[in-house]
Amino acid sequence: MPSPSLFDQLRSANALLAREAEAAYRDVARRLTGLPVVLRIDDEVFLVRASALGLTVLRGRGPARIEIATSRQLLADLLEGKLSVLEAVVNGRLFLRGRVDDLLALEGAVSAYLHGAVRVPRFEPLFAAFLGAIRGERLAPEIAS
Amino acid sequence: MRVGTPPRASLDRLLALRGPGLSLGAATPHKEWLHFAVHAPDVDVVVNFSIVSSGPGTRRGQGSARVGRVAILVHTDRWQGGLERCPDAALAVRDAGTRLLLGESRLELRDGRFFLEATLASGELSASLELEPITRPVQIQNFALENGPPMSWLVVPRLLATGWVRHPGGTVRVARAPAYHDHNWGRFEWGADFTWEWGYALPREPHVPWSLVFVRISDRARLSDWVSGLFVWSGETPERAFAADELDVAHEGLLRQERLLKIPGVLGLLSPGTDTDVPRRLVVSARRGADHVDLAFESRTLAQLLVPHERGSGLTAIHEVAGRVRVQGAITGAPIDFESPSIFEFLRA
Fold first, then answer.
1. Where residue A62 sits, what CATH number does that domain have?
2. Can you give the residue range of the structural domain that contains B218?
3. Based on CB atoms within 10 Å of each CB, which residue in A33, B54, B72, B189 is the most buried?
């Protein structure tokens, strides 16, 4: 079974954060306002923009101040604590491009996002579903061989 | 505080889940957890079942919004572990609290023995164990954290565990291995002004009669202790409880390691780095008249469980620390002298 798109998962996660951790959601939006981010995760590309109204996720590229490129496997490894963000960057598994000040602002936004998400019980099934799908992809080649 | 040693006939009822009780209007969720540690020759295992119940509830928690969790930690040459969340729909407390079902995991009490089945969804870690208490429980009821509602703690320091543990390195058979159990319940908030540290000493050799448990609950700055004690059993019987004013507790050095398992991993992203203030050595000296006990725990390696504070953005870190404990002393003229593996816990808020 194909994994759900990260685009859809991110939009669902944002909606959940907005609904159940509004203060964190507004904090993330405030930190990212004026800092559009392009994400390339495997073969998916999307743009995240923020304003006082909240977060918007759009398919495809657009004008951005920060670019992130990585894989779903790496995101799963980060969520499972198998390596740190610094190790991922140093190992070449996470590519970040932007001004230092912008990247620091992004770090603050991601941190605010996670602080909100980990306090919303309904995020746990989302994390689990994402990790479960990735584990399935990891196992598939082993089963096939 | 009351320390009691009920008869074995009521063991199932005593060891069973308590539930939130009648709690109309209680603002702080009821928390309850059952903790087990097993020391087999090639593996140490920690399994922790917990339930958080919010809102008004009945005696066994029906009517509350509940979330259960199962944590499994396995220590071989390194720590491996994970935390499984179980929503209310997959959680059941049955038979007067003697059966707990948490998704694929379960804990049952029958005839004074625990039957434990625990597994993570990843399939990497699982355990199936029968645990037979060989010491009588001690219960400390109604102590307060940060002037809050009362907490209670029940400890069975020494059990014999039989069964198996599976981890990525293989399946380990466990045969009458020394094990530890405690059970905590009450209402408090993660992130409130408290820390704790506790640990146990239980010998591998069956003929050594002594079992010991140390506990200290303090404020966040660790300037004031709210509860502390060193409890000593001889055979199945609680023999001595050293009180706070009979204890001297010292930390020596700091434990350092290059990598640190953080559970759940997502919280590790919010708490990067490997520095902790877990001591390399914890020394507890207890004196009362001619009775004296010196307990020294040497920390070897640790794993970290992280819990979000319920107010604010902080995290509580619960360190499970594998090491060796050495105990020397004498109680009523009988010498104590043994060394054994142990897992001490250090909570920092």
1. 3.30.1050.10
2. 189-349
3. B72
pLDDT (0 to 100) of residue B89 = 86
Chain A CB within 8 Å of residue B90 CB = no
User: Count of CB atoms within 10 A of residue A74's CB?
Assistant: 20
| A81 closest CB neighbour out of B121, B122, B265 | B265
Domain that holds residue A110: 6-133
B96 interface with A at CB cutoff 8 Å = no
Q: What is the ipTM of this complex?
A: 0.86
Both B226 and B141 in one domain: the answer is no
Cβ pair B266:A114 closer than 8 A: yes
Same domain, B142 and B217: no
Residues in chain A closer than 8 A to B269 (CB atoms): 78-79, 81, 84-85, 110, 114
Same-domain pairing of B206 and B182: no
**Shortest distance, CA B46 to any CA of chain A (angstroms):** 19
Is B151 exposed, middle or buried (CB count within 10 Å of its CB: 0-12, 13-18, 19+)? buried
Q: Residue B197's Cα: distance from chain center in Å?
A: 10
Total-model pTM: 0.90
The Cα–Cα gap between B3 and B233 comes to 13
Residues of B within 8 A of A143 (CB-CB) are: none
Enter the tokens of residue B274: 């490997």
> Does B312 touch chain A if contact means CB atoms closer than 8 Å?
no
B48 lies in the same domain as B140? yes
- In whole angstroms, give the CA distance from residue B151 to residue B70: 21
Count structural domains, chain A.
1
